[in-house]
Write a structure and sequence with these properties.
The chain is α/β, with parallel strands linked by helices. It has helices at about 5-10, 30-40, 50-65, 105-115, 145-155; strands spanning about 20-25, 45-50, 70-75, 90-95, 115-125, 155-165, 170-175. The protein is globular and about 40 Å long.
């Protein structure tokens, strides 16, 4: 296997045209851009990020690639209502490489759950280890079992564990 590949990991979700996807902590937009192509032409992707410069760069990149179904949102994924979208908006929420930075994984899980339509799914991709100076410090790595426990206590049902790259794990939860 190789490093975490957004397109490969997103295939686990069977995304299709017309779906609505929210990417928590979108960063440079690797998952948001890939998802936008997968749900086009009828679907929508919302890239949520707290760093405004990253959102501006992502907006420009979407324009360069002529991706018109991606909106950027300056929001806080760790606040109730911090994303600014209505309840039951998303078919899928993507949470990739942000848990090791989160102050409250539980609050983040609740915000993701709030956005999901009934039967919607959350894909969590995070570091399984600290690797060569990339990703979190060893003490900040969030074990997959901790994620399962926390998201379960937020009322989400664990449904799948999948290989997400050499240094990452992948988990799917459902509302």
């Amino acid at each position: 296997m190789a490093f975490a590949d957004p397109r490969t990991n997103l295939q686990t979700l069977n995304l299709s045209s017309g779906m609505t996807v929210v990417d928590f902590g979108s960063g440079v937009g690797a998952y948001a851009l890939a998802a936008a192509l997968m749900v086009a032409p009828e679907g929508k992707v919302y890239a949520v990020e707290i760093q405004k410069d990253l959102l501006e760069n992502l907006k420009k990149e979407a324009g360069v690639r002529n991706i018109q179904n991606l909106d950027v949102i300056w929001g806080d994924i760790e606040q109730a209502g911090g994303v600014g979208l209505a309840d039951n908006t998303a078919d899928v929420v993507i949470i990739s490489n942000v848990l090791f930075q989160a102050k409250s994984m539980y609050t983040l899980a609740l915000e993701a759950k709030r956005l999901l339509k009934p039967g919607g799914r959350i894909m969590v991709i995070d570091w399984s280890e600290s690797f060569g100076g990339m990703g979190p410090l060893p003490a900040d790595v969030v074990p997959a079992e901790d994620v399962k426990k926390t998201f379960g206590s937020a009322g989400l049902a664990f449904s799948l564990d999948f290989p997400a790259g050499d240094h990452h794990y992948g988990l799917i939860f459902a509302k």
